[in-house]
Amino acid sequence: MFERLREDIQSVFHRDPAARNAFEVLTCYPGMHAIWIHRLSGALWGMGWKWLARLVSNFGRWLTGIEIHPGAKVGRRFFIDHGMGIVIGETAEIGDDVTLYQGVTLGGTSWNKGKRHPTLEDGVVVGAGAKVLGPFTVGAGAKVGSNAVVTKAVPAGATVVGIPGRIIIKSDDEQEAKRKAMAEKLGFDAYGVSEDMPDPVARAIGQLLDHLQAVDGRLEGMCGALKDLGSNYCAQDLPALREEDFAGVKDKGDSQVG
Q: All domains of the chain, ordered by start, with CATH?
């Protein structure tokens, strides 16, 4: 019991820079209170004390503003930040290291018995006001943007934004490395291609960097072929790309991002 309590407190320090000490977390974090009350109500639910479990759960809702059905399954190091207005349904399943922000609903879309609420795998983050509705799985490490409405399965590592939720898959590591290498070669910080900024400008910059990478490779191949034929056409160095030439682009981009 005390080991789980210590683990819960440490999870707050890892994910909330506003947390100052363990006493503050114990006394002033309603998300933690809701989770501890749920463990009691969940144990009562598992022993068949359904009414008492619901009564304890209702007390937790009154105390914290967070409603977790005693039948819901919650993993380790679950963190609820702020918490007010969160609703977690009876058949919801939450993995380890999951984070929910205020106003999140893990709800159902059917009145039928059986599985009707979502499953969140390990490491999922659900932003403020998001609604995840239905008996599907949100894959490990996925992120649900604030106010998104998600009604379909989400692959592991993906980001979902908008209404209805649109899935934005992260670039694979190899492709991302190529883009970063090309950006460094051009002499500016490719802030626009960050996987944490899935917007149209970021995608456009990413496509341009992919194209430049392909053109660069093709030119190197052509120069190699010409050299084999005895030509010295490619012996000339390309004009240098000076970092100061891109300073204005960087400054403008940084001000937009900030």
A: 2-168 (2.160.10.10), 173-257 (no CATH)
